[in-house]
Structures are given as structure tokens and as C-alpha cells.
Fold these 2 entries.
Entry 1:
Amino acid sequence: MEDLHTGFPTLEGLLLATNGVSFTVERGATLALVGESGSGKSMTCRSIIGLVPKPGEVIDGRVVFNGRDLLGLRRAELRKVRGGEIGMVFQDPTASLNPVYKVGNQIVEVLKIQRGMGTREATRRAIELLDRVGIASPETQFHSYPHEMSGGMRQRAMIASAIAAEPMLLIADEPTAALDVTVQAQIMALLSELQQDTGMAMILVSHDFGVIAQHCDHVAVMYAGYIVEQAPVQEIFDHPSHPYTQALLASIPHLDAVKRSEIVPVKGQPPELSRLPSGCPFSPRCGFVRDGCDSVPMSLQAVGADHVTACPYVTWRDRGAGAPDHRDTPA
Amino acid sequence: MYRYLGRRLLHSIPVVAAVIVGAFVIIVLVPGDPALNMLGYNATPESLAILRRDLGLDRSVPEQFIGFLRGAVVGDFGESILKKEPVRDVIASRAVISFALLLYSVVIAVLVAVPLAILSAVKKNRWQDHLMRLGSMVTFAMPSFWLGLLLALFFAIRLGWLPVAGYDKTSVLTILRSLTLPATTIGLFLAPILARTLRSSIIEVLDQEYVEAARARGYRESRVIGRHVMRNSLIATVTVLSLIIGFMISGSVIIENVFAIPGLGSLIVDAVLQRDYPVIQALVLFFGLTVIVINLAADLTYAAIDPRVRLITR
């Protein structure tokens, strides 16, 4: 993805839900998109498959998938990509499965449309898929309606429908957010397993750094429609360079945090896209704000191998020992 | 599913009982002497006595009720005083016509309303939507007898395509031709109600995540709307439709009169004006039972559309 801009026309002018987002996901690799609500993660995902809700639209940029720019595709071609080459798993499986159709038939529908299978073949394959995603007695569950299943089972069924057409890329938009903690781990394990078997790439939208640490290769941190930092997962944890990334990491509760005070929430509220400050959008909440933050360009600069950040005041030398720790700094 | 059906049937028993009592009570509650009302003040005491005996008015009220109940169970309501035919036959021949008219009207209404509702919902707040809403308000606000006359004027008199009025039962084709104008009139009256209800349901369903998920699986928009949105939007419309049908069974009086269709509507008007009590009683019972059956059908339709409805009785 290169320089993606997705905008919504409003009375106050054009709002940019994504503002110059660029990233690459390799075959078999997993990219995590992290950030607060409204930071543009979901819009980024939707832009890939051309499903930005109206009146929003992709204004600029390229989404190159297997050598083709998806944004330039005609509708019929795009439909082949959606659900065929790119599968999507939504946040809430209760809401994203149609309540009036049997779960099995919803998978059969994907197979018929994207793979051109006949009913019998598609049914057999759908049962295999239900079995593959860990649903016990798939022949029986094929005939269940979504409301007859548990949340975890529904998400497994949703995943089965997303991988039915054997996509090369799976976009999972907070796939575990609506599930119990114990089930979350199972679903993530399932996704990893499927990825290893099929070699598909994955874009995982998540809040959960624990999940990211375990399952992702690369992390892109988003804020107010910008990617503010991007790096391999280990690098993000070891050397977070952007103050926002640092703040996010500091807001995670650790078991070894002796006092509650060691968990530090990110101060302030996420900004409204209509009232973004000039310069760095994080500057009003930033612990290291200084003169000039209101005029810095939001461009990514390398601060390490494969590691870029949007904060110009974090230099290569600042990292490590010299890295500013916002906990010491008064607001 | 059977359990659900059983529950619904049980629920309708008290309603059926109430309808039967209601139909019976008419003759008891009517002020004065029904026989005198029917025959007028010039009637001889002998003819009054005969009519009283025919109506069973010479017996006690509980006896009359048991007689009525027995008749209701086997469908025997005696003879129409006016037509000197069994009430059952009078109603049956008329009911067929009325149901044909109603069915035809509903088909027309659905054929008009569904495409308009979809267009209007998909183009929400665009000119197509505004046009549909304005148009439906205009048709709905038009008195239906006037709309009927306009249609008759244009299609029957100006173009000569269809008969102006009357019911020609020589063949299925002539019956259809006779019913087309009245059915169109009723259909155009019903269509706005259906279209509006369906439009708002579709708009609500379009916001659901499973619609987005269907698009994300690469389905054509026609499939997304036709398969994934429509079925979820139908419940409210089925409710409205069942209420309207219940109302239209007796409410099509005016249209039946405008187009001289010999249906139940004109029968009940005649029966009331002529104080043909056996017919009135039987019609009240018949309308009541029909509404109950239609409601049952609506309940079954909900369950067929949405599997979650079947759970409600557990």
C-alpha cells in the first residue's frame, strides 16, 4: 500500500481518515495495525477491498496486490478479489453472520460464487472447512443457525467463510475483540495455524500488544489517520521511538508492575479529525512537545533497520539509554 | 417449529371464542324486536311469530346460543331472510370473489412496492427517494373511490382496454379483466404503506455488519440486497401486510361498489341495510375467523423468515 488517502466530505471540509498510509505485507507474514479507536485502522482495511462506507472514498494512493493496483480495478474484478483472493474477518461474529441463514450455507455461498462449485461439492468442502477451523461435529453444525452457536464457534465459522476461497491475504479486523479471553487465545492460535498451513499473508488489527507480540512480524502504529511508527515487532517492543508508541506500550498492564502507578494511560482524548492541530497531530498529548511540533511534516524517517518513525525529534542516537521516558516528564 | 405452531394455535382459541360470542350477541343486543325491525310495523302478528320462530327468538338466550354454536360448528347459519338461500352459500359465493380481488390487489401492491422500496432505500435521501416518498404520499392521500374512478375513466372509457364495472365470470380471463381495475385501485392504495415500511426496514438492515460482510465476500450488490438484506427486512412488512389484509376483507366495500363487484363488501352493506340478521351474524364470525387465520399465517411466515422467532416459545 502506498500513500493511501481516504477522505470523507463533511460540512467542515474533507476529513482524512487515512493520511498517506503506506506499508507492505509479504506472503506468509503478518502485519499488525495498532492504534486507538478512530485512528484509521479499519478504514485502511476497508480501503484495500474497496469498501469504504459512503460518502467516503479513497482519494489518493495505490493498493498493489500481486502486481495489480486494486484501486484501479473494475467492479467485477474487484469482486473476485474480495472474498476470493482477500478474505476478511470482522470484529463481531454475531453481527457479521447473517442471522437468517444456516452457517454452513453461508460458507457454501462463498464457495459457489468465488470458486464456482456446485452445491454438493461446496457442501462437502464447507463441512471440511468447519472441521478445519475446529468446530466439533461439523456435519451437524453445518445446519446450525448463527444464534445457536457460541461466540467462539461463530468466529470460527466466520473464519471458515473467510478462508473458504483460499485467499492469499486475510484481513482480520480485531477478530477477538468481542470474545472471552480464553476463546481469544484459541482464535488467535487458529489464525496462526491456518497461516502456517496456507502461507497466506495477514493484516491483523488489534489493541492487544500481547497478541501482537505472539503472532505478528511487523507493527504499524496509527494515529489520526497517519502511520506514526512502523518496525519489526521485536524492535517496537525493545525500542519504541515515537512518543505515542511509547505511551501505548506504557499503558499495558504488566504482571510485574508492582504498583498501579506503573500503568500509565495515554493522556487526553484521541483528536477529532475535523480539529487536527497543525504539524504533529499527537503534539497536544505528547509528553515531549516542544517548539516546532506544530509545524513538523508528518513524514516517516528511518531510525533503524526497517524501522521508521514520524517524530523528527527522535534520532538514532536518542534511542536506548538516551530515549526520553515520558513518565519523568510533567504533562 | 411444530411447538411454535401449537402455541400460536392455542393462543387463538380465546379469540375464536370471543368472536363467536360477539357474533351471537348482535341479535340479543339489538334494540327492540329483531323480527319487528326486519318486517316493519305493518307486519301481521302471524308473520312476526313465524320469523321469531325461524330465528329462534322464541327460545331462551342460552338455548339460542347453543343453537348458534351448533350452527357455527357445522357452518349452518340458517337462511338469508332477504335472498331465501342458505347463508352459507350466499357467503361462500361472495367470499371467493372477494378473496380473488384481495389476492390480486396484494400481488399488485407487492409488485409496485418492493422495487420502489429497494430503490428508495438504496438511494436514501437522493432524488429517487424523495420522488418515491412524494408519490406514495399523493397516492395514499387520494380517496380510493376517486382513484378508482380516474382509473376507470382512463383505462376503461378512454382506452377501452378493460370493462368499466361489473363482474363477468364466463372464464378465468374475463374474471381477471373484471378484477384488474378494482385490484389496481386497492393495490395502489396499499403499495405506499408497504413501500414505506419496507424502505425503513431495508435502511436499517443495510447498516448491519453482515451486509458489509456479504460485500466483503465479493457478492454482487443485487445478491447482497436480494438475498441478505431483503429476507431480514421482511418481518415488519409482513406484519403490516397481515393487518391490511385483515382490514381489507371487509374494507373493500367502497371499491366493490364503485366497480360493481359482487363481493363480501357489498353483501355486508346490503345485509345491514336490510337487517338480514343471520347474514350479519355469519359475516361477523367469518371476518373474525379470517383475521385470526391471517394472523396465524403471519406468525408462521415470521418463523419461516427468521429462525430466531421459533425460539420465542421455548
Note: Residues 242-328 of chain A form one domain.
Entry 2:
Amino acid sequence: MLARRLALLALALVVASAVIFAVVDLVPGDPAVFVLGTGARPDTLAALRQQLGLDLPWPTRYARWLGGVLTGDLGTSLAYKAPVAGMILDRVQVSLPLALMALGLAVAVALPVGMLAASRRGRPADALAMGAAQVGIALPNFWFAMLLVLVFAVKLRWLPAGGFPGWSDPLAALRALVLPAVALALPQAAILARVLRSALIETLGQDYIRSARAKGLSRAQVLRRHALRNALIPVLTILGMQFSFLLAGAIIIENVFYLPGLGRLIFQAISQRDLVVVQSAVLVLVAAVILVTFLVDLAYAAVDPRLRGR
Amino acid sequence: MIPGRHRMGLVAGAALGAIALAMALVSLVWTPFDVTGVDVANRLLPPGGAHPLGTDHLGRDLLSMVMIGARTSLSVALLAVGIGAAVGVPLGLAAAASRGGWLDEAIMRAGDLVFAFPALVTAILITAALGPSAANAMLAIGIFNIPVFARVTRAGALPLWTLDYIRAAEISGKGPARISAEHILPNVASLLIVQGTIQFALGILAEAGLSYVGLGAQPPTPSWGRMLADAQTMVTLAPHVAVVPGLAIVLTVLGLNLLGDGLRDALDPRLKARLT
């Protein structure tokens, strides 16, 4: 079964890379003209095109790119004259910790809120938590980010309003990621809390929960030991999907906070027609989503023994 | 359950949605001020007086801007739902009709692939190829909506195919396409209305995000996301220029989500556990 899954994973990655290559290939504008300017002589342009491999037919160019991806050689950025792989690696050091921090925060908030709401179902605490969740889902994260900057950076001066100092000073780096991570996490926490609540309520209605209560476990013990574990499947599904939203959301949040992450790299590269960078950076994002989905599928089996071997 | 809570949500949601829709429609014929001109003397006025929501950095009336912005946001999100439903529902019906077959597998795997491209990444790629515009933002959000509708339709349709009356229709010689249209579709319609409302709300958020980073509606068309982008540099001087369009988004999305939840409970109480 694992072999079939791995084959599907490889197929998904190849198809995704082909889609990205095809779309980027459609982008109008000649990179050679962009580098040399509109006044360049036709023979200089032709020479550069040949040097960049732009004169080759598309199957050859696609095969070259894919081969490069597999060997870690993503080519050279036209705008920065630097290896693309190194540039992406630098940016991942901002984007990945940001996404993980946001995911961790979302779980840390959603878990107690969802459990509280489920155990106090129909009472004021539940109504309050779910009302707050409704508002959290409706908040655009970049707007929430602006309000956070206004309060915590401009008025209170507790945290930086933007920019990234680099990991040489880990504390300063973490401080720079706090507000972006909170902005990203809030809507995700709201969604997660709602899913957890309804999953818990559904499991709490099962017979074995009544048996556990009958054998003398307290409500809190039943919730933690039996219900939570069984409610994890829908929560895992949502977490996997949320990773994709976090990566996408990070593209906007990186712009609010001027963070040098993958998203900003893609934006800058597109405006500079630096397509070598665009296709590889987008592939990294998409491959990350595909890999996480794959891992979530594997995690189901770990959480629920009944799904093993399926 | 607190009695009537969902009915309350339904009413509040419908009211908020109706206000947004009314603003968009009224803006077609009337706005309190003309927003095409610049009125520097009245820039960054706080809410109150002649400008109930204040003015922006160019002296434009924020209420008028929000009204016209509603038009952009609602139309982009609504048409994106249209694209998603028009392509996704037939695909979901076909997948369910061939339940377990290669077509089902192919449609669902293709959907997984689209899900791997976050809407914003799709929008960036489309924008790179075709240029930024409200239409391309709509296309990007719409593409993301397709697998959502396909999955919901399939999930709703699959259990129906095992029912006796569908069997009877099959035996009487009706083809899968006809059964899907005549018997399956009407029975998944309530699911689709609920999902459509939720995707509408998500579409408004997505459109705001895209416009905010410059991939949606282009100047001079006002949109809520672009208003927020303009407000970013002014937010310390005049917070209301950021608060007003932000609240417009939050209230509209909140309203549509409440409406979706309320409709779900009203149309089919059994769905409550299945969809969260």
C-alpha cells in the first residue's frame, strides 16, 4: 500500500511541476529583453537567449528544469545573478518557522477552546467561544495584522512593526515573527476550535463514552483519554488543509510585515520577470502542500489503527 | 442547544448579507459623494458630520468608497462561486455516478492536485500570465472553488445511488446523466446552497487579500482590499481609514457565514454533524 501511495505522491509532484512550468511558460515578456533592456541589439539578445536555453523547445527546457530540481541545481536568478536554490533556502528559513509558529499557536488556542466549548455544550461558555470563533473566521488576517501593528508596535512598542533581522540573533528573529504568526494563527485557530468542538460532541455521544463514565471516570478524564483521541481524525484533516492556507496566507502577511520569505520572493521575482525563480519557488510551495497532505494520510493510520493497511 | 440561537444567527446573517448587497446595488445609482475626484482640503477627516465614516488620504468619502467596494467584492466572490459550481457540480455528479470507477478516481485526484495550489498561488500564476485584474482574481478563486463543489456534490450524491428509487430509475432505463439531473441534483441542492454561501464568504476574504497585494481590482476601481492597502501607510495618523473597510469585510463575511450555518440547520438538521 505504501508503494502505491509513494507512486501517487511522485505522480502528483510531476504533474504539479508540469502545470507550473506550462503556466510560467505562458507569461508574456522576454526575459532576455528584461535583462538587456529594450535597446539591446538582436544578436546580443539571441546570444543571451541561447545562453539561458530559451531557444530550446519546451520539452527540453522542462526536462532540464526537472533534472535540475532533482539534483538541487535550480539555475541562476536573472535579477540577482545568484543561484536560485540558495535564494529559496534563505527564504524558507523565514517562511517555514513562521508557518510552524502560526500552526503551533493555532493548536495551542484551539485545543482548550474547543474542549471547553464541547464540555459546556449549549451553555454560555460554549456560545461565547463559538461566537468568538465566528468573528475569528471572518477576520481577514492582513487586516488583523495591521491592527496588531497599530496596537503592539506603534502604540505599546512591545514588538517590531516589520522587517527581519536574520537568525544570527535568534531572540530578535523570534520577536519579529510573533505578530505575523499571531495574525496568521487567529483565523486558523477559530476554524480548528469549531471542528474540534463538533468532533468531540459527536464522539461524546458514543456508547463507549457512556461505558467509560459508568466505570467511574470523570467527565474531564473521559474527554481527555477517550474522546480527544477519537476526535483527532477530523482535526488532522483540517490541520493538513490549514498548512496550505498558512503558506498562502503567509504570502500576504509577509507583505504586511516586510518579511523576506518565499511569498515576497515570488512577488518580487514576478515583477522582475525573473521566471527561473518564480517556477522553482512556486514548486517549493506546492510540493510542501502535497507532502503535508501525504504525511497527514500516513498520520491517520497512526491515530486510528482501523485505517492501517487501507 | 440554546433555543432559537440558530434562528437568530440566520436572521442576523441574512440582515448583514442584505445590507452588503443593498450597498452594492444602491452604489450603482447613487453614492453620498463622488469618489472620482480628489478633495485635499477634506483629507483624513474622522467619522462624523457630512462624512459619516470619514474621508481617506485623498479626501474621498469612505461611505461612498465602501458602497462601491461592496460591488467589486460581492460580484467577484459571487461569480467565483458560479464558476466553481458550474464546473464542480457536474464533475461531482459524474464522479458519484461512476462511483469507484476510473472517472471517479480521476476527478477526485485532479481535485487533490488543484487543492495543492493555494488560491493565492494560483492567482499569482494567473496574474503573471494574464496581468492583474478583478476578472483574473475571480478566475483564480473560481478555480479553487471547483474541487470544493465537486467533493461536496459527490459526498452528497454517493449515498443516494444506493437508494431503491434510484435503482428503480436505473432499471426503468434512465441513463446516469438523466438520473443525476432528475433525481440526484435536487436532493443535493440544499448541501450546495450551504456550501455556496460559505464559498461566497471565503471568496470575499480571498478577493480582499488579492486586491490588497495588488493582484485584484486595479485603480481607480475601489475595492475593500485596495482601500486597506491604501490605508496601511496612514493607519497611525488616521486609524479609521483602516478600520472602516476592515469592518465592512468582517461584517459581510460574518453575515454570510451565519447565514450558511443557519441555512444548514434549517434545511437539514442531520447535516449539522457532517459539515462543520
Note: DSSP finds ten helices and no strands in chain B.
